[in-house]
Design brief:
two-stranded antiparallel sheet, about 35% strand, Chemotaxis protein chec, alpha+beta, eight-stranded antiparallel sheet
Length: about 150
């Protein structure tokens, strides 16, 4: 996958979390390609894309990291209800996906509604023949999460 296909998602994640959550976020390592089924953290927010690119983007993180992120987003550091955390994760992904789409060199991109999955021992398979690019991220508070992008030109 070309860097120009996934880099806008990294930029949008950093910008969105800083602006909407007041959180400083940086890369925790180099982006790498994964062709196999990948284990995921306890919460996954995923969206589909179509247009000049087709594919998926997701955020996956441990529940404590999701709780901190969503708590900062809604202004409630004590947020505990999993359905509220799920809703917040979907909304954060929706905002950053919209921001990333505006940065992509493909006009007319369309995004699906976000879907959030929760639970232990989840594994993700990518699209046939389109690997995931995994970008490890770290919040200033120390929580780590991944951005994963699987895109191909349509």
């Amino acid at each position: 996958m070309k860097q120009q296909h996934y880099e806008p998602f990294v930029e949008a994640t950093v910008e969105t979390l800083e602006m909407m959550c007041g959180m400083s976020v940086t890369r925790a390592g180099d982006a790498y390609e994964a062709k196999n089924i990948l284990p995921a953290y306890g919460i996954i927010a995923v969206m589909g894309f179509s247009g000049g690119l087709r594919g998926m983007v997701l955020l996956t993180m441990p529940m404590p990291v999701a709780r901190a992120m969503v708590g900062a987003f809604v202004g409630d550091p004590n947020i505990a209800d999993e359905s509220d955390i799920s809703d917040g994760m979907g909304e954060v992904l929706n905002i950053l996906a919209g921001a990333a789409t505006a940065k992509l060199p493909f006009p007319g991109m369309k995004i699906s509604l976000p879907m959030v999955l929760m639970g232990k021992d989840q594994h993700l398979a990518g699209q046939h023949g389109i690997p995931w690019v995994v970008i490890p991220m770290r919040m200033q508070t120390g929580g780590e999460f991944d951005i994963r992008v699987s895109m191909a030109e349509a």
